[in-house]
């Protein structure tokens, strides 16, 4: 897949990950897209390592979307852990 396809998947999957995990996030559309793109690559890597399958085959393959969504949800949770602890620490010092 080309870079444009990854950006489109990243934008859509980042939005899906945020819909699956509602809540306030400090990031905007760029962070959503980056989480989606990196999450897609991360999900594809996890699918390869854990299940031994090439889960990122093409734009319209279901395995691509499932891997991208799973990876994005994991990265969004990690992002919230990192940024949430930073924000809660700042509020605790006031």
What does this structure look like?
This protein is mainly alpha-helical and 94 residues long. The chain is built from 3 helices and no strands. Helix 1 packs across helix 2 (29-51), helix 1 crosses helix 3 (62-92) and helix 2 packs across helix 3 (62-92). The model has no long low-confidence stretch (mean pLDDT 75).
Distance between the termini: 48 Å
Number of structural domains: 1
| Shape estimate | globular
Largest beta-sheet details = none
What structural class do helix, strand and pairing data support? Answer: mainly alpha
Keywords:
94 residues; mainly alpha; 3 helices; 0% strand
List the helices and strands and how they pair.
Layout: H1 3-20, H2 29-51, H3 62-92
Summarize the structure.
This protein has 94 residues and is mainly alpha-helical. It contains three helices and no strands.
């Amino acid at each position: 897949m080309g870079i444009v396809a990854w950006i489109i998947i990243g934008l859509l999957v980042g939005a899906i990950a945020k819909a699956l995990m509602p809540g306030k996030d400090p990031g905007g559309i760029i962070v959503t897209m980056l989480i989606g793109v990196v999450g897609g690559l991360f999900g594809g890597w996890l699918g390869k390592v854990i299940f031994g399958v090439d889960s990122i085959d093409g734009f319209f393959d279901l395995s691509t979307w499932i891997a991208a969504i799973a990876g994005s949800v994991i990265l969004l949770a990690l992002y919230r852990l990192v940024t949430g602890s930073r924000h809660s620490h700042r509020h605790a010092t006031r």
